[in-house]
Amino acid sequence: xxxxxxxLFALQPVVMKQLQTIFDxxxxxxxxxxxxxxxxxxxxxxxxxxxxxLCEQPMQNVPCETCRNCRxxxxxxxxxxxxxxxxxxxxxxxQIRELIAEMKMxxxxxxxxxxxxxxxxxxxxxxxxxxxxxxxxxxGEVTAILLTEQMxxxxxxxxxxxxxxxxxxxxxxxxxxxxxxxxxxxxxxxxVSMMTNELETAMILANDEQFAHARKTVLKLVEAIRQNVHExxxxxxxxxxxxxxxxxxxxxxxxxxxxxxxxIVSIKANPESACTxxxxxxxxxxVALHSTYERLSSQMESILQARSSLQRNMNRTLMMEQxxxxxxxxxxxx
Length: 334
Fold this sequence. Notes:
By secondary structure, the protein is of the alpha/beta class. It has helices spanning about 5-10, 15-25, 40-55, 70-75, 95-105, 125-135, 155-160, 170-180, 185-195, 200-205, 210-225, 230-245, 245-270, 280-290, 295-310, 315-330, and strands at about 30-35, 80-85, 115, 140-150, 165. The protein has a 5-stranded parallel sheet with strand order 2-3-4-1-5, sandwiched between helices. Strand 2, helix 5 and strand 3 form a beta-alpha-beta unit. Helix 8 packs across helix 9, helix 13 (about 245-270) packs across helix 14 and helix 13 runs antiparallel to helix 15. The longest helix is centred in the last third of the chain and has 23 residues, at about 245-270. The two termini are about 45 Å apart.
C-alpha cells in the first residue's frame, strides 16, 4: 500500500492537507480519531503524522526520513510511541493501565509522547472509562491517535474529546491501478472495483473462480434478455438458479446485473464512460442505441424491486421469472 508522501496525498488529499496544516500552525490536539474503512490508508497516514510530530528537521511539513527519530519510528523502536491492539475481542483495562504507567515512566525520552489505539471501537467499558480519564487529564505533552472503522461504536464521551479526522474511500482509479499492478485484468478490475473499494477484498474477489463464474453468468443473462424472454428463462433455470443458491449469492448476482444496466445508461449518455464491464462495451453500445432512458430506468427499478423482494424471502424462482418478464418488457417490478 501507499508509503511515500505522493501516494498518501493521492489516496487521502483532504486528510493529508488537514494534518499538515495542524502541524504547520502549531495546533496539535491531545487526541485524534482516524475514522475510515479498511484500506483507506489510516495506518500509513498515522505513521506519517507520528513521524512528522517527532521529526528533528521536517521540511515543508514533511518528515525528513533520515533523522534519528524518523528512523526509529520506521523501525518501531521509538520509546515515546506506544501502540495498543485488541487482545482477542477487546482492548482490555490491563492494557490501558499498562499503557498509562509506561507513559508516566521517568525513563521515557524528553519530547512528545504518542500512543495509538488500533481498533479503538473495541475498547470494553472498563478500558474505555480508563482511557477517557487519561484523555481528560493527559500527563504532559501527549497525543493520542485512535484508529477505527466503526466510529459509532466509540463512546460519545470519548468522541467529544478527540478531533475527528474522516478518511474517504479509496478513489476508484487508484484501486484499479493497484489491481492491475497485481496482474488483474482491466475488465475484472473494473468489475470488482464496483463491488468494494478495499484492495484486499477486491483482490480476493478478482482471484475467486466462483466470482468469475458469477460475472460470466450475469453477462450471459444480459445477452439472453436482448434476444427474447424464452432465452432469458432458459438461462435463469439452467444456470442462474443452480449457481446462486444462497441468499447472499443471489444478492451479489442482482447487484452485478444492476451494474450492467447502469453501464448501458452511462454509455447512452457518454459512449466513453468508464464501465463495470469494459469487455462488454460494444454490446452495451448496441443495447443503448435501441433503448430509451425511460425503459432503462424501468429495468433498473425492476432489479432493485427484485432485490427488495429477496429480502422479504419471496420464492426465488418466481421472483426471477417475474424479473425476466419485466426486463423484457421494461415494466416496473411489482
